[in-house]
Task: inverse folding
C-alpha cells in the first residue's frame, strides 16, 4: 500500500514519504484542521507537517488526538509529526522553550521531526510580515544547532533537521554539528529542481523533502500546474498535471513530498495516483 512508502533517515528513524501539509492562509479554525487531519489519516497519510509560523499546531494536535481516539491508527508511534522552529525563536536560549510550547499546542510528548524553519533570526516576538530593517539577523548556526541537538538528546524530537538551507549554510552547520541534520525541507518541483543541493545532501546523508510540490499555487505561482510542457505530457498520458508532478517528484528522486491538501478530493486523488504505474 502507498502509505507504507518510507525513507530511512540518518537518525535511524523511518519517515513516511508522503506528508500532509497544514499551512493555511488565513489560519483555519481548530475544528476545520482537526477534520482535515482525520480525513488525511483515514485515506492513508501518516506524516503531518506543521510549524509554529502556520498557527496550525493546535488544530493538528486536535486532529491527532481524534485520530488516536478513533482507532484509525494503533498508537502514536504510527504517526510521524514534523514541526518547525520559527525565526523569532532561532536564538540559542529560546529553542528549548519554543519546542516545549509547540509540544503543548500539539498535545504531544515528542515530535518526530523538529526543523529550523529558515536560516534567519528575527528579534523575539516580531510578527511575520511586520519585520523592519534591524529586526532580521544572520542565524547563529553553531549555537542554535547545538540547542537543536539538545532537543533531540532530551527526547523532545526523535530527529532534527533544517529547512530552506543552501549548500553554503549546510556547510557552515556541518562544520560544528555533532548530529547531522536528518532532513533539509526545501521548495522543489519540476520548475525548481534543486540539483546541486540534492547532490550535496545525498553525499552528506541528508534527506531532501519537497515542499510546494505543485509550485505553491496559493502564493500566486503557476509554474507547475500552469506549465505548458507538463500540460502536454499530462494530456498525452491522459493524467492531470498534478499526477505527472507526483511521478516526477517521487519516482525520479529519493525524497518526500509535502502537499497542502485542504480538499478531500485532492487528498483522495493524491493517494490514488501515488503509484509507479502513473510514471
Ligand atoms: N518549510 C517551508 O518553508 C515551507 C514553505 C511552504 C510550504 N511548506 C509545507 O508544504 C506544504 C505545501 O505547500 P504549498 O501549499 O505551497 O504546496 P503545493 O502542494 O505546491 O500547493 C498546494 C495547492 O495545490 C492545490 N492542489 C493540491 N492537490 C492538487 C491536485 N491534485 N490538483 C490540483 N491542485 C491541487 C491545493 O489546492 P486546494 O487549496 O484547492 O486544495 C493547494 O492550493 C505546506 O502545507 C507546508 O506544510 C513548507
Result:
Amino acid at each position: 500500500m502507498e502509505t507504507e512508502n518510507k525513507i530511512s533517515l540518518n537518525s535511524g528513524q523511518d519517515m513516511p514519504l508522503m506528508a500532509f501539509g497544514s499551512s493555511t492562509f488565513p489560519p483555519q479554525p481548530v475544528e476545520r484542521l482537526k477534520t482535515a487531519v482525520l480525513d488525511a489519516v483515514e485515506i492513508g497519510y501518516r506524516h503531518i507537517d506543521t510549524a509554529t509560523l502556520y498557527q496550525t499546531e493546535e488544530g493538528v494536535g486536535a486532529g491527532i488526538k481524534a485520530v488516536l481516539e478513533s482507532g484509525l491508527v494503533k498508537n502514536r508511534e504510527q504517526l510521524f509529526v514534523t514541526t518547525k522552529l520559527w525565526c523569532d525563536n532561532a536564538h540559542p536560549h529560546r529553542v528549548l522553550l519554543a519546542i516545549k510550547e509547540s509540544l503543548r499546542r500539539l498535545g504531544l510528548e515528542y515530535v518526530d521531526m523538529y526543523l529550523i524553519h529558515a536560516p534567519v533570526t528575527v528579534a523575539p516576538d516580531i510578527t511575520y510580515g511586520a519585520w523592519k530593517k534591524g529586526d532580521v539577523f544572520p542565524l547563529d548556526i553553531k549555537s542554535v544547532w547545538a540547542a537543536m541537538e539538545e532537543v533531540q538528546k532530551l527526547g523532545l524530537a526523535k530527529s532534527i533537521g533544517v529547512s530552506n538551507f543552501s549548500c553554503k549554510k549546510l556547510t557552515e552547520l556541518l562544520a560544528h554539528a555533532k548530529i547531522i541534520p536528518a532532513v533539509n525541507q526545501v521548495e522543489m518541483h519540476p520548475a525548481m529542481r534543486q540539483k546541486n543541493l540534492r547532490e550535496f545532501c545525498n553525499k552528506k546523508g541528508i534527506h531532501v523533502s519537497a515542499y510546494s510540490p505543485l509550485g505553491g499555487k496559493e502564493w500566486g505561482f503557476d509554474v507547475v500546474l500552469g506549465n505548458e510542457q507538463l500540460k502536454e505530457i499530462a494530456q498525452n498520458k491522459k493524467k492531470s498535471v498534478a499526477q505527472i508532478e507526483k511521478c516526477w517528484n517521487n519516482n525520479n528522486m529519493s525524497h518526500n513530498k509535502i502537499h497542502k491538501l485542504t480538499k478531500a478530493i485532492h487528498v483522495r486523488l493524491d493517494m490514488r495516483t501515488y503509484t509507479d504505474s502513473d510514471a
User: Anything to note?
Assistant: The pocket of NAP is lined by residues 21-23, 49, 117, 163-164, 185, 211-218, 240, 242, 258-263, 266, 269-270 (CB under 6 Å). DSSP finds nine helices and twelve strands in the chain. The two ends are 17 Å apart (CA to CA). Confidence is low (pLDDT under 50) at residues 272-279.
